[in-house]
Design a protein that fits this description.
Elements lengths: L1 E6 L7 H15 L3 E6 L26 H10 L2 E7 L7 H8 L2 H9 L12 E7 L6 H16 L4 E7 L14 H12 L12
Parallel strand pairs: 1-2, 1-3, 3-4, 4-5
Helix pairs in contact: 1-6
The protein binds flavin mononucleotide.
Length: 199
């Protein structure tokens, strides 16, 4: 299977990146092909609401979103990993998601959802917040759900960690790396457990 992973944290080697790398390790150990996109290092302009995608399902802006859009079409599994910023997803995540308006037009206006490959399309959302407030998970989760459904990912699991603020503080969490390792395996159908993917 092909797995596209979106790191929406600006902090290189930060909590999100550490968790995402552990998740990808589990997936790569099982022999699957992964591609990690560090959104902060990509040139992705915000959606201009120009209407250019309405009749075509294709964005008229030419930038790194083209690479992301290709990965969204071609992959079977999707990981969105974002820190919670101001009770929601990071701007890096939101910018990429807003540009998926082209997929929204393709799916809902042109009635052409991205076709499922033989493995189906499933997602995993990883969130980290420095505060111990669930509202960031709820707000970020709502946006991520809209993203996943728009790109025809019908089911996804959410794994979140709160009260993790300092760079690298996730290392002090007792179960976090095991949690995401298992979530990565569930994403590819390798591990049973209590998740949306059953088992
Ligand atoms: C601009 C900004 C806004 C933030 N807003 C929130 C917030 O609303 N809720 C929260 O729980 N943490 C908030 N945080 C803390 C981060 O979520 C936290 O430090 C997280 O561990 C960062 O992950 P990273 O190391 O992958 O960048 C904020 C941090 C920044 C820089």
């Amino acid at each position: 299977m092909k797995i596209a992973a979106f790191n929406a944290s600006p902090r290189i080697g930060g909590n999100i990146e550490m968790l995402l790398d552990e998740t990808l390790k589990a997936i790569e150990e099982a022999g699957h092909e992964t591609a990690k996109f560090r959104l902060n290092e990509m040139r992705i302009r915000p959606c201009q609401d120009c209407g250019g995608c309405t009749g075509t399902g294709r964005c008229v802006q030419a930038d790194d979103m083209e690479v992301i859009a290709d990965a969204i079409r071609a992959s079977d599994r999707f990981i969105l990993a974002s820190p919670i910023f101001f009770f929601g997803l990071s701007a890096q995540a939101k910018t990429m998601i807003d540009r998926c308006q082209a997929f929204w037009c393709e799916k809902y206006l042109l009635k052409k959802p991205i076709p499922e490959g033989p493995h189906g399309r499933k997602g995993l959302l990883i969130l980290v917040g420095g505060m111990k407030k669930e509202i960031g998970v709820q707000c970020g989760g709502a946006t991520a759900t809209a993203f996943f459904r728009t790109v025809s990912v019908g089911v996804h699991e959410t794994v979140s960690f709160l009260g993790v603020d300092r760079k690298g503080a996730i290392s002090e969490h007792e179960t976090a790396f095991q949690d995401v390792h298992r979530a990565g395996r569930r994403l590819i159908g390798q591990e049973s457990g209590s998740s949306l993917f059953g088992g």
